[in-house]
Design goal:
11 helices, 11 strands, four-stranded antiparallel sheet, single chain, seven-stranded mixed sheet, globular, alpha/beta
Length: 328
């Protein structure tokens, strides 16, 4: 890991959507600190609705935070049209559904060339497109240039989406569920490709997923998100082999390898609702440890009354936002 400034830094980021349809404001991201180091892959894990996709889009400038700051290589992100256009040359988003991300009327060449054309980097465009396709594993690129999305498999489509991002020579990739819509047989190929791009190009990556199993295969560090906040963060070994937060433990318990010696933990109660964040620990209404506490023990824990501090962005040591994490 380089000692230079992290590729991306998030400081006390908050994103709140206005109230609507009789419901209060939705605190989609409610105080998040995170770093992605140079050449590092960080997996951001959590259930649907926990805010991870909102955070991912904020990291590439598609959503302006309500408060807080995003820094790219130590410099704060600003939101003028010119600044955002320049920033998006360096930080590219890869979406979950390649079929939806690709224009069905565009062939592969035009899909990959679209970014350079928008950014005015059309010098040696043919070479740029060919190189991007090769780096994305579509070789020889001449075989794919004139194909349309419907003429390719899901894995090939995702490689075209990745090639489109690579055509701008970014230093950071934010991949939102990059393998969720793919067959199991090609998921490993796409994850391997992201690792190869990190090793060959020095890319940094934030990979968003609901699957902790993905982190075993690809990430250097893991951040677990629940209801707008990161509740546990650390290296893959720290978080996945020695989880502290009961939410992380519940997610891990359903993995075949990690949970083979225990029954899967079934989370009760309502799934995350960013318009109704509970007092105290925001996970306590669904926490399997909370019902076990009685009387004085419950009062002393303060899970339902005492707010937890926002975890810091410090990449070490491992951290967990849980009143009970160190006592059990």
């Amino acid at each position: 890991m380089s000692t230079a400034a992290p590729a991306l830094e998030v400081s006390d980021l908050r994103i709140t959507y206005p109230a609507r349809a009789g419901r209060g404001p939705a605190r989609a991201v409610d105080g998040a600190n995170l770093t992605v180091g140079q050449g590092e892959i960080v997996a951001l894990i959590g259930e649907s609705g926990c805010g991870k996709s909102t955070l991912a889009r904020a990291l590439v400038g598609l959503i302006k935070p309500t408060s807080g700051e995003i820094r790219y290589q130590g410099k704060p992100l600003t939101y003028s049209a010119r600044a955002l256009k320049e920033y998006r040359r360096h930080a590219q988003l890869v979406l979950q559904d390649p079929g939806g991300a690709l224009n069905p009327r565009q062939n592969v060449y035009d899909a990959v060339a679209e970014g350079p054309r928008l950014h005015g980097t059309t010098e040696e465009l043919n070479s740029r497109v060919h190189t991007a396709l090769s780096r994305a594993g579509l070789r020889p690129p001449e075989r794919f240039l004139h194909r349309f999305p419907h003429e390719m498999s899901g894995g090939q489509q995702q490689r075209v989406v990745i090639a489109g991002a690579l055509a701008l020579d970014p230093s950071v990739i934010v991949a939102d569920e990059p393998v969720a819509s793919l067959d199991a047989s090609v998921r490993g190929e796409i994850l391997k490709l992201i690792l190869e791009l990190r090793d060959s190009l020095g890319l940094s990556a934030l990979v968003v997923s609901h699957d902790l199993g993905l982190a075993w295969n690809i990430a250097d560090r893991v951040a677990v998100m629940y209801l707008g906040r990161i509740v546990e963060v650390g290296t893959v070994e720290e978080v996945l082999l020695h989880p502290k937060h009961p939410y992380t433990k519940a997610l891990l318990s359903v993995l075949p390898e990690a949970g083979r010696d225990q029954r899967p933990t079934v989370l009760t109660g309502e799934p995350p609702d960013p318009t109704r964040i509970p007092s105290g620990c925001r996970f306590h209404p669904r926490c399997p440890l909370w019902p076990e506490l009685k009387g004085a023990e419950r009062a002393a824990a303060g899970c339902d009354t005492r707010e937890l501090p926002v975890l810091t962005a410090d990449p070490a040591p491992a951290q967990a936002a849980c009143h009970l994490a160190h006592g059990r």
